[in-house]
Design goal:
444 residues; alpha/beta; disordered N terminus
């Protein structure tokens, strides 16, 4: 579908002015003058399930351009808010080399067609760097596939940072990009991120961070992923300063989300208005000091939907050789996650195979959109309640109300900043009062 067939326009009225926002054109109109927000992607934008997404909703259009490998379920931490509980009960197996090779060939073939680098990431509910000797083999396979296809190879890895010094140096040299899970100064980090023996981990993480920051201070990517709880939300600016002092360039703040599989006290979840207020302060500090501060749930620069891997053209493989659509569902040893899986490795053909029927089911489910999102100005830059609200679960209803304050207010703040309207807020109540009184109307 052509973008012009969905020419969404929104009138944003706030204390001090008015903006016309055109998300599909990535532009605003202020006092009659058009202003580009960001450069649009070179590839033509398309509509997914009637909404803007990565591609059209057809099986033939699933051409994954990124390979994500969940190498195992091994983890040396026992974080209070972990989204994958009881990992210790999962089999100890590692993903098979043949599975990695098959996935690499699929993705590399698509990268050749689109003339882009071959990207592979090691992620999931585990600690990839516990076993660098395994990753060395996986990386060798992927690099070989990239060479065979004359592609630039960009390997990425996530880590909790509780690794040996030698492994940290190895990873810093081996990976183009590294994402480090780190919650801030010791008193904040150690509150919820202890190891499996209940020992504090902040000293290990800070040592690892300094190694990464030193080796990635130029062109390579070093990202800190910081989980925010109700106990740390008021210290987000302080945390940003702390990370900047270490040498970080990018910080992604993630507020704790509800987890039906691993319940913990709702008191840990930060209040939305408080999160946005403190995120705004942290981002303001970042803008003044060369630190990029991000919230993944609402990214004005990116056109995206939920976090689902199919929507992102991402081929994600579990340790037991399944293709998963969700970062939350990373194994199927007992056939418990069939709803979220759309393929598996065939040991007879040595190839990963898509389940076309299941993919059609998954895509059909995505047609069910929350009523709340239909006319929202931020609908093209938001995670739509994921993971709190999931259209793949049996209790889903399109009349559910997502907790939109974080996504909407941060979207509005980004638009206002781009329009040159920067307001100083002396108190949180002043900040809340300002955003509560912004009105948005879709223009026909």
């Amino acid at each position: 579908m052509d973008n012009n067939s969905h020419s969404h326009r929104y009138q944003i009225i706030f204390q001090g002015g008015e903006i016309i926002y055109e998300p599909l054109k990535s532009q605003i109109i202020v006092n009659g003058k058009k202003q580009a927000l960001f450069l649009l992607p070179k590839k033509k934008l398309s509509l997914f399930s009637g909404r803007l997404g990565i591609r059209d909703a057809h099986i033939s259009d699933f051409n994954p351009i990124c390979l994500t490998i969940y190498a195992s379920h091994h983890c040396n931490l026992d974080c209070t808010y972990c989204y994958i509980p009881k990992k210790e009960t999962y089999p100890n197996e590692f993903i098979d080399l043949s599975v990695v090779e098959s996935g690499a060939k699929i993705v590399a073939n698509n990268c050749v067609k689109q003339k882009i680098p071959f990207t592979v990431g090691f992620h999931g509910g585990n600690e990839p760097l516990l076993h660098p000797e395994k990753l060395e083999k996986y990386l060798a396979i992927c690099n070989s596939v990239a060479i065979d296809n004359d592609l630039k190879f960009l390997p990425f890895c996530t880590t909790n940072g509780v690794i040996s010094e030698d492994t940290a140096y190895w990873a810093a040299k081996k990976f183009y990009g590294i994402s480090l899970s780190w919650d801030g100064p010791a008193e904040i980090h150690d509150a919820f991120r202890k190891d499996i023996s209940n020992n504090k981990t902040s000293q290990h993480v800070e040592r690892t961070a300094r190694i990464f920051a030193e080796h990635k201070k130029n062109s390579d990517i070093f990202i800190i992923r910081c989980t925010v709880t109700s106990l740390s939300v008021d210290k987000m600016e302080e945390i940003a300063r702390y990370f900047h002092g270490i040498g970080a360039k990018i910080v992604v703040f993630y507020p704790v989300f509800r987890n039906r599989d691993h319940p913990f006290s709702d008191k840990l979840i930060p209040e939305p208005q408080t999160f946005v207020y403190n995120f705004h302060k942290a981002r303001k500090y970042g803008l003044a000091n060369g630190l990029k501060v991000i919230f993944s749930g609402s990214r004005l620069k990116d056109f995206h939907n939920r976090f689902c891997s199919i929507l992102q053209d991402n081929l994600t493989i579990t340790p037991d050789g399944f293709l998963t659509n969700c970062f939350h569902h990373t194994q199927n040893y007992d056939n418990q996650d069939n709803l979220f899986l759309y393929g598996k490795f065939n040991t007879e053909t040595n190839q990963l195979e898509y389940d076309s029927k299941k993919m059609k089911e998954i895509i059909k489910i995505y047609n069910s959109e929350l009523n709340e999102c239909t006319h929202c100005f931020n609908q093209f830059h938001c995670s739509h309640g994921c993971p709190d609200i999931c259209s793949m679960t049996d209790h889903y209803s399109n009349i559910q109300q997502p907790d939109c304050i974080k996504e909407k207010w941060l979207g509005l703040a980004a638009i206002l900043e781009k329009a040159g309207y920067i307001k100083e807020f002396k108190t949180k109540s002043e900040f809340i009062d300002f955003f509560q009184n912004i009105t948005c109307h879709e223009l026909k």
